[in-house]
Amino acid sequence: MSETKPVPDIVIGRLPIYLRALNYLLAEGQTITASKDLALRLGISSAQIRKDLSHFGEFGKQGMGYDIAHLRDQLRSILKADRVWNMALIGAGDLGHAIAHYAGWEGKGFRIICVFDNNPQKIGRNLGRFQICDIATLAERVRELEVEIAIVAVPAQAAQSVVDKLVEAGIGAILNYAPITVKVPAGVQVQYIDPVIHLQRMTYYL
Amino acid sequence: MSETKPVPDIVIGRLPIYLRALNYLLAEGQTITASKDLALRLGISSAQIRKDLSHFGEFGKQGMGYDIAHLRDQLRSILKADRVWNMALIGAGDLGHAIAHYAGWEGKGFRIICVFDNNPQKIGRNLGRFQICDIATLAERVRELEVEIAIVAVPAQAAQSVVDKLVEAGIGAILNYAPITVKVPAGVQVQYIDPVIHLQRMTYYL
DNA sequence: TAGATTGTTAATCGATTAACAATC
DNA sequence: TAGATTGTTAATCGATTAACAATC
Fold first, then answer.
1. For chain B, which residues score pLDDT lower than 50?
2. CB of residue B64 closer than 7 A to nucleic acid strand D?
3. pLDDT band at residue A142 under the 50/70/90 scheme
4. From residue B135, how far is each of B23, B113, B151, B162, B193 by CA, in Å?
5. Distance (Å, whole) CA A141 – CA A26
6. Domains in chain A: how many in total?
7. Which of B78, B109, B127 is the endpoint of a domain?
8. Please, are residues B180 and B159 in contact by the beta-carbon 8 Å criterion?
9. pTM above 0.85, yes or no
10. Are residues A70 and A109 in the same domain?
């Protein structure tokens, strides 16, 4: 009888946007905000923001709004952004190179701790501060290093087989930069980053 | 009386995914596909694919499915992906560097043709094959070079003012890598790329 | 023809919004 | 207290799906 409906994916998808905005407001030195303020900043209705938050509890005070630091902490907790996540990077090409050097992770609780490739020319060489490992050693290293998230930066043709290996190795979340939709078993999370897709979503309107 | 409802944004958002899959099938040497095939590959219902396409015309044959090359051409035309778009890159930091060197654009009809920064230390220097220009010269260069799309790769604190300058200069589409939601007038397109947002959308489920 | 798949309609499902009592 | 804003309900809106006649 304790049928709790899961929070819709679309709501979860907005929480990181809220969290990002709250961090920004904090950095600006603000301490209080209202759903109307956030709504104006984010281009989302205030009712939607309140409704989204209400899935998780009551974080505001009537007449006052929200304590930014408090709401930030709550969202970090809900999203599990209050801990550090170990990530593996698969693919040591140009794209992998850029991702490995990207600074935006650290400080947000995400860190790349190992890099894999299947090219014998690359294995053993360095990519930034990492030694490139043979993808054949993926499963054991993922276990040893307690990797929970993988970033896929291999060519489209290789992506599905890499993803299969990752799933096999017990990875639960994959950030896929390869320009292809991949198949994963239910329960494994995949998110996509493909700039071309975003650009084509805009050119239609130009 | 010619009230034509615009095609929903969410439908436009899926078209590039379809196009990407069709290109992949073509590269694999296939010539025909059915909505059921695509559905299986993309994790989308076949009814939805057919409905999405029906907004733009009748591209299939009953009993047969779709000619891949033909449907690909149609989608390219709808999305205006059958021409070349000139892009300006704003921000010559680490992220801008990675974006400028990213190879995935060319061949898809997108090309960066100029790079801007506001740092006097950087202006005049080279970023890859580009000489970094003063952002103060943005408007005139955008006009001269017929730039229609901008990629924003500046720190969050600078993003809104850069976006304001871009809008002022007549840019109609912005791909924003800065981790902040920006305000633009109606009619200006913005798409966001922030890996942290994608990662946080997954950790909730882990 | 028989089999398959489209394009489209109507039904279902889910998400957004408007409105307001509760309350700080 | 008066004013403001939350959390939540009910109404609206829009998107997805199931089903099937049309037809290749």
1. 1-2
2. yes
3. very high
4. 37, 14, 13, 9, 22
5. 38
6. 2
7. B78
8. yes
9. yes
10. no
